[in-house]
Amino acid sequence: MRGGGDDRGAVAVEAALVTPLILLLIFGMIEFTMVLRDQVAVSSSVRAGARTASAEPRILTMGDDAAAAVSRAVSSLSDDGLSEGELWIYKAGSETGAPEDCSTDCLRYTWDGSQYVYASGIWDMSTVDACPKSASNPEGPDAVGVYLRYRHDFLTGLFGAGLTLGEAAVLNFEPAPPAEGCL
C-alpha cells in the first residue's frame, strides 16, 4: 500500500500557491534594481551639469555647456525616457529642489535623440552674482540648479507602465576674481 499519493497532491497545491508569489518577488527585485540604476544615473548626471554650470559664472554658454555635460552623463539611460523628460538649468534661490516652473532665469532643454538642445527660456548671465561672500556681499555668490525629469518604463508591466524620476542639484557659483568686478 502506498501512502505518498496524498502528499503529492498537497505539494502540487502548495507549489501552485507559492510559485506566483516567488515570481512576483523576483520580478519586483528586478524592477526595483532597474529603477534604482536609472535614479542613480539621473542623480549623477544633474550633479555633472551643476558642477559645470557652477564653474562658469557670467559665461554666456554656461547653459549649453551644462546641458552638454548632462548629455554625456545620461548615456546609460534610454532615449525614449529622455525624450519624454526635460532638463532645466535655473537660478536657484533658497530651495534645493526644482522650482515650480521654468519661467524666469531658467533655460529649458529637450532631448533630440543624441543630446540636450536648447528649447526655451531666458537667463541673462551678466546678472549672475559671482562675488565671494564679504561685508559688501553678505549673501555670497548666487546658486545654479540643474533639474532633470526622466521617464522610466517598467520592463514587466506588473507594477504599471512606468514612473517619472526627477532629480535636482544646486551648487553656488564659483567666486569670480576681483578683476571681474568683485571687491
Which keywords apply here?
5-stranded antiparallel β-sheet, 23% strand, 3 helices, 183 residues, 37% helix, elongated, alpha+beta
Write structural notes for this entry.
The protein is 37% helix and 23% strand. β2 and β3 form a beta hairpin. The relative contact order is 0.18. The protein contains three helices and five strands. The mean pLDDT is 89. With 183 residues, the protein is of the alpha+beta class. It has one domain. The protein starts with a helix and ends in an 11-residue tail after the last strand. A five-stranded antiparallel beta sheet has the order 3-2-1-4-5. The longest helix has 50 residues, at 5-54.
What does this entry show, briefly?
This protein is an alpha+beta fold and 183 residues long.
Q: What is the count of DSSP helices, taking H or I runs of 4+ residues?
A: 3
For the record, the count of structural domains works out to: 1
Distance between the termini: 100 Å
Class by SSE composition: alpha+beta
As a percent range, the share of helical residues equals 25-40%
Q: Give me the strand/helix succession.
A: HHHEEEEE
Oligomer: single chain
What characteristic shape results from the CA principal axes? elongated
Strand order of the largest sheet: 3-2-1-4-5
Strand content: 15-25%
Instruction: Flag low-confidence runs.
Output: none
- Radius of gyration, Cα only, in angstroms? 24 Å
Major β-sheet profile: 5 strands, antiparallel
The count of strands amounts to 5
How would you state the average pLDDT, rounded? 89
